[in-house]
Specification:
Blueprint lengths: L10 H15 L4 E7 L5 H14 L3 E6 L10 H7 L28 H16 L3 E6 L6 H13 L5 E8 L20 E6 L4 H11 L7 H10 L4 H10 L24 H13 L1 H13 L13 H9 L3 H14 L2 E3 L5 E3 L2 H9 L3 H17 L4 H8 L8 H16 L3 H11 L6 H17 L3 H13 L4 H17 L3 H9 L9 H14 L4 H17 L5 H14 L5 H13 L7 H14 L3 H14 L7 H16 L3 H6 L10 H20 L3 H9 L10 H16 L3 H17 L10 H11 L3 H18 L2 H15 L1 H15 L8 H14 L3 H18 L2 H13 L17 H11 L4 H8 L3 H15 L7 H6 L9 H7 L7 H5 L17
Parallel strand pairs: 1-4, 1-5, 2-3, 3-4
Antiparallel strand pairs: 6-7
Helix pairs in contact: 1-2, 6-7, 8-9, 9-13, 10-11, 10-13, 10-14, 11-12, 11-14, 14-15, 15-16, 16-17, 17-18, 18-19, 18-20, 19-20, 20-21, 20-22, 21-22, 22-23, 22-24, 23-24, 24-25, 24-26, 25-26, 26-27, 26-28, 27-28, 28-30, 30-31, 30-32, 31-32, 32-33, 33-34, 34-35, 34-36, 35-36, 36-37, 36-38, 37-38, ...
């Protein structure tokens, strides 16, 4: 990257000057003024003009003006005439040379001016001249006046006077230009425009040997240099290629610290100095706006007014400067309407000449100006991040408001930055404890447990109100429990006991938190719930509504109450007044019980209410509980897409504590992937997590159950039975007897049947039905009846399966009806009633298609083939596969109706509309609402089926690997765990 950069887009100017040179050689001179902004290549163009003139036979006189010579009269003219040989017969200086200076105070001596003019004429007598003066705006006043006078005289002399002049919009108004007092007839002015992007790119490529360095790299260089040859030259000097022959150019960095030897930042500093102190101040303050940290995007209008307010400049001049610099390419308008530097490296170079202390002070000044202007908290706080501590209450409030906004928007890293900065300000103990609690919670949740827990420990120790200490202790206990330190977490909460005398509401909150955290340790859970039961017997009011609800939850899972009775008690507790610390526990517990009772809409409302009242930035045991209940609701509805869309459904191997919180949702995700035919994805998700690496909590049991479903679906009944049995053993050790949590007995019964152990299967199925009848919901009883029907067989099996279908038709949970219909159809087929079997099996296939349950759809089709039906009753995909309801709803959506409008028009629930649209999208093979019209207009023969589903749907292939592995007596039924949906 060496040698001068070639000229681009200057041919027209060179041609015009060449014409003027020809006229000068003929004895008719003129002044040619080349104007342009700093860095646009005025000097390079002047050198090219001089070379062309010399090649044309003209003698060249040169002068380059500088600020150091402005105090010396006629310094530029003397420099000009000092070039080249003296004339053969020079005219002596006129008498009186060096007399009194001009009254104007510009050092202009008329006698000296006349003598200098005669010297120029004497030189011109020896042949035509080109007088080239560079940077005439820096010339001394006497030289500028002399050049103006010369321009009036050379029209009859063989002298071409070519001068360059800086013409750039600065904050301070510029001095009059050289030609401001000349007639336009005496001067030809050429203003150099910035190079176009293509020309600048050509310059970059020409300076890099060895071929094209890549479009992205070239674009980066062009933006960082604002298409100006001066900055391009300096940048390319810093980005030298390696010593190797094939070494490419270094990447364009965003910081000048990565540049060596530093030509680029030095050139930018020179550009700022040439623009004057006022312009430099505005330019640097503008650079601070571009590196203010999070929240900078909040403000996009009024940049000129803000810069003027901060720097004290004229707003009109600032507006003009922003416009001019944008046209030059130094600035650009971003997506938020803000005027910012065209490249981060250019912005950093502008700041390089500023001391760090001055920068930090400028950030505070900008923050105060934004606050006065009423900008959003994020914009103000973004400027406070790199500023000195303010020491004023407004700074703390702004930082905390900005942190809250960042949490709402899901920008955890920004919230962390604001909270850390808030700790640099003077804080009262109570406020400091609150900030530490929130900061520690966010750091722990953001995979930084090593930083988060010490913050929470400090928050607990900061003196302050008892309520603040309870919040900090609950957050600390939650973090410790998620790390597996459940006993230590309970000790933290227990140690608060003596400090809560006289605060019964706070003491209850501590006990509630202890109860939830103890779920991660079987021994601790038993101790805590024994204390809760004993307290309820002695003084029921001491537990409060939330504590009573926890006991309802315990009794529900222990098989000690019915769904009807549990919901009556929970609804009664919800009507009682609850304190703010206890309400999240009450809402989360009530939501879990409602979900088990199949009151899904009510459970969803409670979850929404609970999450809305929770601060997402604070660690709380009920936060994860409500997220888990939300996933349980989606899974119960068979909304597989919603389950897989949950953020917690993705693996999180980098942070085991966080992964433990995700385990329940990931278990649902495994089952959703199995049911939608994506076996490979389910296996990868299950393999990426070792249940032994997490706490001894209920989530581990849920994951064991999900892995059992996966193993059963992939033809491993023995492995599936191990998982189901271990899940049941661990749940029983926790007094979780009822199948409301996981129906492991039904699933294990199917595995035992597949392994040829029908007697063991019957025992498990009968026990499942007994416990299901205690809880009493149609979903649990119907599912247990289906398992018992498969284990029993014969006419009794047909009757049990028919009863299962009847019960499950009355439940809002659609996922259990499909396997019940399959079981009923198979029982009829095994009993020789193939004709009767076709109707429930066809219904099962249609319902499975509507749910997106690819696996169950394949099982139903296989059962139909076993019953003598050679082809499926309904189309799998394409517009022909749509049901009447799906087609009506899809057509209304294609016409632009919203889901709420469609629901009102058809008198159905909004969720029904969403379910039908989801099914229609899948059948039509589309992903967006905008594609509905085109998809409905065409009738494709077949749409894509997920890869794992294709194999199971292949003609002649058994879609149930578990059935292939089972050994069945001749003529007996052929049960399968997959028939039951896991």
């Amino acid at each position: 990257m060496s040698g001068p950069l070639p000229l681009r887009e200057r041919g027209e100017t060179l041609a015009s000057v060449a014409t003027e040179a020809a006229r000068a050689r003929a004895g008719s001179g003129r002044l040619v003024l080349i104007r342009g902004a700093t860095g646009t290549g005025r000097t390079a163009l002047l050198e090219a003009v001089a070379e062309h003139a010399a090649a044309g036979g003209m003698r060249v006189l040169r002068a380059r003006c500088s600020p150091e010579d402005t105090a010396v009269p006629f310094a530029a003219v003397h420099q000009l005439l000092a070039h080249g040989p003296e004339p053969a017969d020079p005219e002596p200086p006129p008498p009186g040379l060096g007399g009194e200076p001009s009254p104007a105070g510009d050092g202009y001596d008329r006698d000296r001016a006349a003598w200098l003019w005669h010297r120029l004429r004497a030189r011109a007598a020896g042949g035509p001249l080109l007088a080239a003066v560079d940077d005439v705006h820096l010339a001394d006043p006497a030289s500028r006046r002399w050049l103006t006078e010369a321009a009036r005289r050379i029209d009859h002399a063989p002298v071409l006077l070519v001068v360059t002049e800086r013409s750039q919009y600065d904050i301070d108004p510029p001095a009059p230009g050289l030609a401001h007092a000349l007639s336009p007839a005496l001067v030809r002015t050429h203003t150099l425009a910035p190079l176009g992007a293509d020309a600048a790119a050509e310059l970059v490529r020409a300076a890099v040997p060895g071929g094209d360095p890549g479009t992205d790299w070239v674009d980066d260089c062009v933006r960082a240099a604002a298409s100006t040859p001066l900055l391009l030259r300096a940048l390319l000097d810093d980005l030298r290629t390696g010593t190797g022959q094939n070494a490419g150019p270094a990447p364009v960095p965003e910081s000048c610290a990565a540049l060596y030897p530093g030509s680029y930042p030095a050139t930018v500093s020179w550009w700022l100095e040439s623009a004057g102190p006022a312009t430099a101040e505005v330019a640097r303050v503008l650079a601070t706006l571009g590196c203010g940290g999070p929240g900078d995007a909040c403000h996009g209008e009024g940049d000129a007014e803000l810069l003027a307010e901060v720097t004290g400049a004229d707003p009109a001049r600032v507006r003009g400067w922003l416009t001019a610099m944008t046209r030059l390419g130094l600035l650009a308008v971003d997506a938020h309407g803000r005027v910012r530097y065209a490249h981060p490296l250019l912005r950093d170079a502008v700041l390089c000449g500023w001391p760090a202390s001055r920068r930090r002070a400028a950030h505070r000044t900008v923050a105060e100006a934004l606050l006065r202007r009423g900008e959003c908290a994020g914009a103000v706080a973004g400027q406070l991040l790199p500023a000195f501590p303010v020491g004023a209450p407004w700074a703390v409030e702004v930082l905390l408001d900005a942190a809250a906004g960042a949490v709402r928007d899901g920008r955890a890293d920004d919230a962390l930055a604001f909270l850390r900065r808030a700790l640099d300000e003077p804080l009262a103990p109570a406020r400091r404890a609150a900030v530490l609690t929130e900061l520690g919670s966010l750091e722990f949740a953001a995979a930084r447990p090593s930083a988060g827990i010490p913050r929470l420990v400090e928050a607990v120790r900061v003196p302050g109100a008892a309520r603040d200490r309870v919040r900090a202790a609950v957050a600390l206990g939650t973090a410790m429990a998620e790390r597996g330190e459940v006993r230590a977490a309970l000790d933290v909460l227990r140690d608060l006991g003596p400090q809560l005398a006289g605060h019964p509401d706070l003491a209850r909150a501590v006990h509630l938190a202890s109860a939830l955290l103890s779920d991660q340790d079987q021994g601790a859970r038993r101790e805590v719930y024994e204390w809760l039961r004993e307290t309820a017997e002695r003084t029921p009011g001491a537990l409060g509504p939330a504590g009573q609800a926890l006991l309802v939850r315990y009794e529900s899972t222990a098989g000690l109450t019915s769904a009807r009775r549990a919901m009556e008690r929970v609804r009664g507790l919800l009507e009682e007044p609850a304190d703010s610390l206890g309400e999240p526990f009450l809402l989360g517990t009530a939501a879990a019980v409602a979900q088990w009772a199949d009151e899904l809409d009510e459970a969803e409302r409670l979850v929404r209410r609970g999450l809305a009242g929770q601060r997402a930035s604070l660690l709380h045991p009920m936060q994860a509980a409500m997220v888990n209940t939300r996933a349980d609701i989606a899974a119960a509805r068979g909304d597989y897409a919603a389950v897989l869309a949950l953020p917690e459904a993705r693996p999180c191997p980098e942070n085991p504590p966080k992964a433990a919180r995700r385990l329940n949702v990931q278990a649902h995700a495994v089952i959703a992937l199995v049911e939608t035919g994506r076996i490979g994805e389910a296996e990868r998700l299950a393999a990426g997590f070792d249940p032994r690496s997490v706490n001894d909590g209920w989530e581990r049991n849920r994951f064991l159950y999900a892995r059992g479903v996966l193993r059963a679906a992939t033809g491993d009944p023995a492995g599936a039975l191990d998982d189901f049995t271990e899940c049941g053993r661990r749940q029983s050790a926790r007094d979780v007897i009822s199948p409301v949590v996981t129906p492991w007995r039904s699933a294990a019964a199917g595995c035992r049947l597949a392994l040829g152990r029908p007697r063991d299967a019957l025992v498990l199925a009968e026990e499942e039905l007994r416990l299901a009848e205690v809880w009493g919901t149609p979903r649990l009883v119907g599912r247990a009846l289906r398992a018992l029907a498969e284990a029993t067989g014969g006419r009794r099996g047909v009757e049990l399966a028919a009863e299962s279908v009847r019960l499950l038709r009355d439940t809002p949970v659609a996922t259990e009806l499909v396997p019940a219909l399959i079981a009923y159809g198979r029982q009829l087929t095994a009993s020789g009633e193939r004709a009767r079997a076709r109707e429930p099996l066809r219904e099962a296939a249609e319902r499975a298609e509507r749910l997106g349950a690819v696996r169950l759809r394949a099982v139903a089709e296989e059962a139909l083939r076993e019953g003598g039906v050679r082809r499926a009753a309904t189309a799998r995909t394409g517009s022909a596969a749509l049901t009447g309801s799906e087609r009506r709803i899809a057509a209304l959506a294609a016409d632009g109706r919203t889901n709420d409008e469609i629901a009102a028009l058809l008198h159905v629930a909004r969720r029904t509309v969403e379910t039908h649209l989801t099914s229609a999208y899948r059948k039509l093979g589309i992903r967006r609402r905008t594609a509905l019209a085109a998809a409905l207009a065409h009738r494709p023969a077949e749409a894509a089926v997920p890869g794992d589903a294709l194999e199971s749907a292949r003609p002649g292939a058994d879609p149930c690997p578990l059935r292939r592995a089972a050994q069945h007596p001749a003529g007996s039924r052929r049960p399968s765990v997959r028939d039951g949906g896991g």
